[in-house]
Write a structure and sequence with these properties.
Length: about 140
């Protein structure tokens, strides 16, 4: 006969972006004598109650939560499930604010004319010393 599993490890925040958080956790040290069949991921706003995030069984020890409110801090916890039942919840993660972690890039170097023609000029400049946390894309504006 098996028992419900022990609680999983405390969720760790892996990635944060606008309205989105990705978490991971360690499986329970003791599965209760039966394989873990699913994990239940729950979230809690700073002034709310715990509510389930996943509408389908989570089989892995990672999960991404989207459609989060950007102006509300949120934390997460996880329960493990086997054929005998559901574990106690893990300890809650730290509260996080699901906003973009990038900023505007730094200014590039001063453009220099390298080839001046009758009707055109070629310019060169050095790239910004900081990309703000995301690749710089698009056409330069002069």
């Amino acid at each position: 006969m098996s028992d419900p599993p022990e609680q999983p490890g405390k969720p760790v925040i892996k990635e944060i972006d606008r309205g989105y958080v990705s978490i991971s956790w360690e499986p329970p040290e003791n599965d209760g004598g039966a394989p873990i069949t699913a994990y239940i991921v729950e979230k809690k706003d700073e002034d709310g109650d715990w509510e389930q995030c996943n509408s389908f069984p989570v089989k892995d020890t990672t999960f991404s939560i989207s459609n989060l409110k950007e102006n509300k801090e949120v934390k997460f916890r996880v329960k493990a499930k086997n054929k005998a039942g559901v574990s106690d919840p893990s300890k809650g993660s730290e509260f996080v604010l699901p906003v973009s972690q990038t900023t505007a890039p730094a200014s590039p170097g001063v453009p220099e004319a390298v080839n001046v023609g009758k009707d055109s000029v070629d310019l060169e400049w050095t790239k910004p010393p900081s990309d703000g946390g995301a690749p710089v894309k698009g056409n330069p504006k002069i």
